[in-house]
Design a protein that fits this description.
The chain has 196 residues and is mostly helical. It contains seven helices and no strands.
């Protein structure tokens, strides 16, 4: 009843028998039965009133939709399972996609074969032109080779001055051309005066 087992009810009955007494105990149980009956009737009436209010406000429809969402078969997981098992079913969407992919692959292969034939034809015509050019080159009379233009001679250099004059001329010119910058001196480090 209120979360009580048989052992607890027997204990309550023994205590009631001792406290109330055997003479008034049936009247107490009758009053308790009537009280619980009235409480149950009130609870039923309350629940019916709540259900009627829920029907009027549309809460029952919301409850049905929530229960449908909680049920995976009604929520659409059965559709997901059907899609997962679609490759096993003949005529499924997977087979349609596979057929489209095969048709596209055949078109691409055909286009590649056509381009390969065109490239081979271009190479064949290029080879024929090269062969024709070789035949023409073999049958044409040989032209005399043109002489390469003569290289111009360098002008004769004037004779060098004696060595002593050349050294004397180079020395002042070299010093004037590249003067060396003076190195700045670093300041001297001196020991601090005082405690050493």
């Amino acid at each position: 009843m209120f979360g009580m087992g048989w052992s607890e009810m027997v204990l309550v009955g023994i205590v009631a028998l001792i406290v109330i007494g055997p003479k008034d105990l049936p009247n107490v149980f009758r009053a308790m039965g009537q009280f619980t009956g009235k409480a149950r009737a009130m609870a039923r009436e309350f629940s019916r009133a709540m259900e009627a209010a829920a029907d009027e406000s549309g809460v029952r429809d919301i409850t049905k939709s929530i229960q449908a969402a909680a049920n995976p078969a009604k929520f659409g997981l059965d559709r997901l399972k059907d899609q997962a098992l679609a490759p096993m079913k003949p005529g499924g969407e997977t087979e349609k996609l596979a057929a489209e992919q095969a048709a596209n692959k055949a078109k691409i292969d055909g286009m590649l074969a056509q381009k390969a034939e065109e490239a081979a034809a271009k190479r064949a015509t290029a080879a024929e032109k090269a062969a024709d050019a070789e035949i023409i080159a073999e049958t044409a009379p040989a032209k005399p080779a043109a002489k390469a233009p003569a290289k111009p001679r360098k002008a004769a250099a004037p004779k060098a001055a004696p060595k002593t004059e050349a050294k004397a001329a180079k020395a002042p010119a070299a010093k004037a051309a590249s003067p060396k910058p003076a190195k700045p001196r670093a300041p001297r480090k001196t020991a601090p005066k005082g405690d050493v």
